[in-house]
Amino acid sequence: MFSPPKRRPASTSLRPICNITQTINFSGAIMNFTLTLNITPKDLNVIFDARQKVALAKPVSNSSANVIWTAFAPFEHNSIQWSEEYWIYVSTSSANKNGEQIKKMSQTHPGPAITGSIYTFDQKSGFSQPVRDPNVGADTFAAQNDMPYDQYPSLTFGLAQSVLVNQKIEEQNPISAASVLATQQIQETPCSNVYIWLESDFGSGTIITADTDAKRLKNVNGKKSVAKFGGGVNKIEMTYDGKSGLFLQ
Fold it and tell me: Which residues span the domain enclosing 110?
């Protein structure tokens, strides 16, 4: 019989926590962070009848989350695991169009990307090897857009991260997206917070309009909950509460 854990409201403070923990390689099958999401059979039936799924997003730097990291059809007990390893990608998809599906055209190889360095993307449509730069923070990823203006006046850059959802791997899904003009540089610092909500319209790797000061993510269906990782916290368990529409810890 399903026995939900003792609940307490998840914090609604949405200011990102942007610290990175040294991790083991994702391919080593040891995940550094685990989020467990429980749903009662009754609520699960309601969710499926509404044709909704569980969606997760992660912010970068001090900006709001603007990409669905993963969206999946839930079970009663769901395990989401990941390591703090990232790739930098580039795309011609619009970073400012809600509902746009990101199609990566290139990403850093070999991966994962390293912090404190700059990767240059040029007219050969590939990323250079990283070059250390004292102006890039030790926890920050950076890319320089050297694609000629006449070819692409701007491109979308962002971070991608793999995630293991109910033992099914999703390789290097985008977690962020920003328009970068030719000649410009982008720097992004991953954050620890994970946003969770119920979603009916969009899937993994989709641009969303987010508002970290509101109680809802715009243009999506469910209220968001926040799982606050970091500071020694690497495992969180939450249970969906149908009355509030939130996952509670």
Answer: 26-239
